[in-house]
């Protein structure tokens, strides 16, 4: 199959592209290598994809020029590119342009792909709001510009399925962890603080937040499992994540256990829009995709520490 992966140089997009190549698919990736975080990390991710035989085009999806830069003979599109996370350095315009406008242009491109079997939109548990413990038919209550714009993107994609213009589904991911996790996120930052003996900036009260911390390999299992199931998943929203909840404090302790040392905390003011509880309800994913994530938090953290050590310490 010929597959387009947007956001290919990012954390989850690069892992997915590698898995698709391992499965024998032909992968073209696109990314604008935005400077939201260290571009060198994205270059490393892209290199790993290229080493497995993937092709990567540098382009900005906020400009409607996909058709000019790549052919339109794709069988599947996996759309990861986004302005992710809740960040005080990202403006509403960043969220709107990268999440809504760019998605509209990727959809316009998809409609030109005559052989397209499925458009797979990558969404987020942030669409549910401050608490994300629900099945997919729960009314969305996003509490951040990130969540609102990801909901808009999801609806733009599903609109085309409803209009019978293409088959499409949207996968809502839960707190993904593992090698290549974005540097501003909890585990990569914790591990860096542990190795460098610096203080971890802990959002006030966040120790008791509950999260479905899901290992990236388990997330990728769910994402690629839609291939060949387009009739089953068309028009569907599907949660992907672990059903096992951990507090942020337990996450901190897992890193301390693996590193064999304690990490000093620096408590900083809480973040508006931060989710209080996420627990993936994956009944639908189990039924439609036989989804069954198995990696424990400690195993996931071990993989992430090993990756960090190999790339940034040794
Ligand atoms: N990391 C998580 O825990 C998590 C959880 C839920 C959902 N998601 C979703 O998964 C997807 C990937 O997230 P990630 O954590 O890998 O983030 P990431 O920032 O590592 O990856 C996103 C990639 O998209 C690229 N990109 C952004 N805007 C672009 C544009 N206009 N044109 C071309 N490329 C562009 C970036 O350069 C980056 O490489 C996102 O859609 C995000 O909303 C992530």
What fold name stands as the CATH topology of the domain at 2-173 and 216-240?
Answer: Rossmann fold
Strand proportion: 15-25%
Quaternary state of this entry equals single chain
CATH class of the domain at 2-173 and 216-240: Alpha Beta
N-to-C series of helices and strands: EHEHEHEHEEHEEHEEEHHEEHEEHH
Spatially, the strands of the biggest sheet line up as 3-2-1-4-5-7-12
What binds here, in terms of ligands, is: nicotinamide-adenine-dinucleotide
Largest sheet: 7 strands, parallel
Rg calculated over all Cα atoms: 19 Å
Structural category: alpha/beta
Notes on the protein architecture:
The chain has 314 residues and is α/β, with parallel strands linked by helices. The protein has a domain at 2-173 and 216-240: NAD(P)-binding Rossmann-like Domain (Rossmann fold, 3-Layer(aba) Sandwich), CATH 3.40.50. It is built from eleven helices and 15 strands. It has helices spanning 11-22, 39-51, 66-69, 92-110, 145-162, 186-196, 216-224, 230-233, 248-259, 283-289, 297-313, and strands spanning 2-6, 26-31, 55-58, 76-79, 118-124, 131-132, 168-173, 176-177, 200-203, 210-211, 214-215, 237-240, 246-247, 265-268, 277-278. A seven-stranded parallel beta sheet has the order 3-2-1-4-5-7-12, with helices on both faces. It has a two-stranded parallel sheet with strand order 6-15. Strands 8-11 form a two-stranded parallel ribbon. Helix 6 (186-196) packs parallel to helix 9 (248-259), helix 6 (186-196) packs across helix 11 (297-313) and helix 9 packs across helix 11 (297-313). The longest helix has 19 residues, at 92-110. The protein is globular and about 55 Å long. The protein starts with a strand and ends with a helix. The model has no long low-confidence stretch (mean pLDDT 97). The structure holds nicotinamide-adenine-dinucleotide. Residues 7, 9-13, 30-34, 42, 60-62, 80-82, 84, 98, 102, 122, 124, 150, 173, 175-176, 182 line the site of nicotinamide-adenine-dinucleotide.
